[in-house]
Structures are given as C-alpha cells and as structure tokens.
Amino acid sequence: MKTGGSFGAYREDHPAGWLASALGSWLLLYFLVLPRITDLGPTIIGPGPLADAVSFFIYEVPKVLLLLIAVVFGVGLLRTFVSPQQAREWLKLRQPLTGHGLAALLGVITPFCSCSAVPLFVGFVQSGIPLGVTFSFLIAAPMVNEVAVVMLFTFFGTKVAAAYLLAGVSLAIGCGYAIGKLELDNYLEEWVRELRAAAPEAATSPSPSARLHEAVESVRDIVGRVWLYIVIGIAVGATIHGYIPTGFFSQIMGDQHWWSVPIAVLIGIPMYSNAAGIFPVAQALLEKGAALGTTLAFMMSVIGLSLPELIILKKVLKLPLILVFVGTLAVGIIAIGFIFNFFFHGVHL
Amino acid sequence: MKLQVLGTGCSRCRTLVERVKEATALLSTAADIEKIEDIQAIARFGIMATPALVMDGKVLFSGRVPTTREIAELIASHK
Fold first, then answer.
1. Cβ separation of B43 and A195 shorter than 8 Å?
2. Angstrom distance (rounded) from CA B40 to CA A312
3. Do the chains contact at A1 and B66, CB–CB below 8 Å?
C-alpha cells in the first residue's frame, strides 16, 4: 500500500519469536513463581482463619488470572479460524437435530459477551437458519465459554466442571429444540424478517500475525473486563472459606427443600452475566453445605440469563418470544438443579 | 469522510472508537466519527460480528479490533 513510509513498518515481524517469549514468561510465572507464594499468608500474619483467607486469596488470584490469560489467548486464536460466515454455512448444511448440537458447540467458542452474541444471532436468523437452532446458539454463547471453563476447573475440579459443561450444552440443545417446535417465527421483530435477504458479508482469511494480534486483543478485552469481578468474587469466597462455619448453607441451600432450586434461579436471573466472580463464591457455598444441583442452577441462571442481554434482545424479539426464551431456559435450569440434587444426593465432590 | 463504529456497547467497541480517533489524528484527516449502538442499524450493514468499522457506507472490517496503524492504513487505502 502507498501511504508513505510511516505505516509500512507495522506488522509484528517475528510472530513466532514473540509467541515463544510470551509462552516462556507464562511458564516461568506459573510453575516457578506461583508455587512460592502459597505460604505467604501464615508467614505474614501467623496461623488462623485470617491467614487461611489471605493465603487462599493471594494464591488463587494470580493462579486463575494466569490460567485465564492462557486459555483466552488459545480460544482467541482458535476463533480466528472460525469466521461468522463459516459458522453460518455449517449451520445451514446440517439437519435440524445435528444443527442444535453444532450451534451449541459454536456457542462455546464465541466471546464471553452477549453484546457480540446478539449480532451473530441476528445474522444466523437472517440467513434462514431455523429459529430453534439459533436459540441453541444464543443459550450456549454466554453459558458455556472459556472463562466459565477456567473458573470451574480452578474452583471446583474436573467433575463439577464436566457436569456444568454437559448440563450447559444439553440445556442449549434441549431448550433450542423446544423453542423451535413452537414455531414462533412471527414473534421476531419485522425488521429482522425483512432483512432475511440481505447481502452476505465476505469472509477474509487473516495472516498469522493478524491472528496473534486478535488473540492478544481478546485477552486484553476479556481478562480486562472480568478480572476485577473475579478478584472481588475470590475475596468474598475467601471470607466465606475462612469465617463461615461448615454446614452453614445446608439449611437454606441444601437438598432437603425442593424450593431452594427455583429460588436460587430466581435470584440468579437478574444478576449480571459479567459475574465471572460468581464461581469462587459458589464454590464457597458448596463447601459450606449448599447442594450441588442448587449451586449449579444458581451459577447457570446468573450466567445464562442477564438483563443487559434481554434489553438488546428486546429490539430483535417481540415480548412473547422473549418470555418463551426466559421461561424455557429457567425451567431447564431448574430441571438440571433437581436432577443433580437427586442423583448426587449428599455427595461431596 | 464519514466513519461509523458499529457495536452494541461492549468494551471492544469503545476501544475501537479510541483507535479510530487516533488513526484519523495520525493521518491528519478530518473525519466525522459516529458510534452506532442500535442492533437494527448494525444489522442493516450486513455484518455478523462486532465491532466493525464503516467508511462512507463501506464495511472495512468486522469482528476485530486492529491496531491504530492498521486502521490508519485501511482508511488511507480506501480514500
């Protein structure tokens, strides 16, 4: 391009070198620096609940942030290989039933932000992908994502993380399928249906250095957006961890009362989906006696349904369809809460 | 020249607005920069991924936040 020398110098000239040095620094921090800060709490304060809480905090915060940076970077890189146009073509080709599964899986790699999920949802609807399939995507997009995966593995371990992910994907497939069966296309706002024949946007294939740049941008964006919530969440979790007696939450959030699940969901719905910080708090609840199903249902309703997303969706969907969306998802989440409370009765993971 | 940043109000869109301003300053071009947050208006441009940059009605890119320099290059090459 001919814009003068000043812009010609741009482009990371050595993407491979940059990647190697970034990876080296990360490994150094995670495996050499991190293990050395575990004992700082008792060293500074002496033994006791405050030291426990402080140790938990100063170890968990850098650990989860480091993991988050690595995973968000990886998924950000992966995302550059799946353009929205490609996703749309894949969804068009599938049969409705496999389409729901694929849509749910696409939701996994899309950004942890409903503001980018809604334009994609509109784009899918416009290109004639069945409404139910697009809802599977819309449900999975915020609920199942890289931030949730990192938080779940860090704070709950493999079993609960796997349970959450399986439940989330099943929910996206099931609720999307149910909404599709209701044939509610008339409840899309008129402008969405009118745009159905809009000219498709051309896809581009980025260079390796552009891909790296995008991955770095997604770390900057996502980690930059959630880190404070996570720190606050860990602080609250650490306080519960250190000060609330064991079994405290079994009275209100245990599995002996069936109504604790719907109440947890109702409390969770208006809470904002940016609350990645909900995971450490939920872990502390679980540790002090809350039932697994109730805790899962609470987390899912906080993350899967949020007011800001519904406000954007209001411009796309008419009220009855929004109510069906919220209602179906709430019922699905409550069902998951019951199922886990029933099958994991009294089980401590 | 009219530049429109499309995005429903996430942090990436705000970053893009900042960089577009920097890019026009770098190019010493006077530009009318507008932020479009309405999902309906965004969808009319036919884009599926936000944020996006539109110059005089033409979509320059979507779904990413390039560096200030790349934005400046793109604006310069489409003038």
1. yes
2. 10
3. no
pLDDT 10s digits, A267-319: 887 776 566 888 998 988 888 888 989 999 998 888 888 787 888 889 899 99
Question: Token digits for A208?
Answer: 């390796």
Q: Does residue A206 form part of some domain?
A: no
Q: What is the pTM of this model?
A: 0.84
Q: Give the residue among A59, A54, A28 at the shortest CA–CA distance from A41.
A: A54
Contact yes or no for A294/A286 (Cβ under 8 A): no
The answer to whether B46 contacts A198, with C-beta atoms less than 8 Å apart, is: yes
How far the first Cα of chain B sits from its last, in Å, is 8
Q: Is residue A10 part of a domain?
A: no
CB pairs below 8 Å between A and B: how many?
Answer: 96
The fold adopted by the segment(s) B2-78 is Glutaredoxin (3.40.30)
B4 forms beta bridges with B34, B54
A93: in domain: yes
CA distance A262 to B62: 40
Distance CA A325, CA A178 (A): 10
**Contact check, Cβ <8 Å, A201/B47:** yes
Supply A192's token pair: 């969405």
Selection from B8, B3, B12, B4 nearest residue B66 by Cα: B12
In the block, residue with structure tokens 């320099």: B69
Share of chain A above pLDDT 70, in %: 89
Inter-CA distances, B46 with A89, A196, B14, B34, B75, Å:
15, 10, 21, 18, 20
Confidence band (pLDDT; 50, 70, 90) for A134?
very high
Specify the DSSP class assigned to residue A32.
I
Place of tokens 């599709």: A180
Q: Running DSSP on this structure, what letter comes out for residue A129?
A: -
CB crowding A207-240: b at 16 or more within 10 Å, else e: eebbbbbbbbbbbbbbbebbbebbbebbbebbbb
One-letter amino acid of A225:
R
The tokens for A39 are 């004992």
* A30, burial (CB in 10 Å: exposed 0-12, middle 13-18, buried 19+): middle
ipTM field: 0.83
Mutate to test the interface with B, among A115, A204, A214, A228 (most CBs of B within 10 A): A115
Residues 6+ apart with CB under 8 A from A156: A164, A279, A283, A286, A349
Q: How far is it, in rounded angstroms, from Cα A250 to Cα A196?
A: 51
* Domain limits for position A191: 18-196+212-343
Nearest chain B residue to A212 by CA distance is B66
